[in-house]
Design goal:
alpha/beta, Hypothetical Protein Ychn, Chain: A, three-stranded parallel β-sheet, two-stranded parallel ribbon, 5 strands, 36% helix, globular, transferase activity, cytoplasm, Sulphur_relay_TusD/DsrE, transferase, Sulphur_relay_DsrE/F-like
Length: 122
């Protein structure tokens, strides 16, 4: 069985943390899973967000999993998040996609939905 963890909630939402918790549990159990960040969840990949020292950093927690972290390119660009390649293409002066995350098209989400046995959206 494979699971697609579709994260659509903003990083400030408890749902975004539940998505991380599920991914961590699946990884501990050595179960096959994929994640995809879409809609407001793309904000987790913004390297310019500041988190106080006394709070957990959702971006860093995802990075610790050392898994592929695909982010919808259109949703990200629409929310001011870009990688170096898209910054050049769209003439944006800076890029701010956090390390370990990658911008991908919605075709990747379609493929993940097609190839997964179960989909859990947060």
């Amino acid at each position: 069985m494979s699971t697609l963890v579709l994260v659509t909630s903003a990083p400030t939402s408890i749902h975004a943390w539940h998505a991380l918790g599920l991914a961590q549990a699946l990884q501990r159990k050595n179960e096959v899973f994929r994640v995809f960040f879409y809609q407001d969840a793309v904000h987790v990949a913004n390297n310019l967000q500041w988190v106080p020292d006394d709070q957990r950093n959702l971006m860093r927690e995802w990075q610790k999993l050392s898994i592929r972290l695909p982010v919808c390119v259109s949703a990200a660009l629409n929310r001011g998040i870009t990688d170096e390649e898209n910054a050049k293409r769209h003439q944006i002066s800076h890029h701010n996609l956090a390390q370990g995350f990658e911008l991908v098209g919605l075709g990747e989400l379609a493929d993940a939905v097609e190839s997964s046995t179960r989909l859990v959206q947060f």
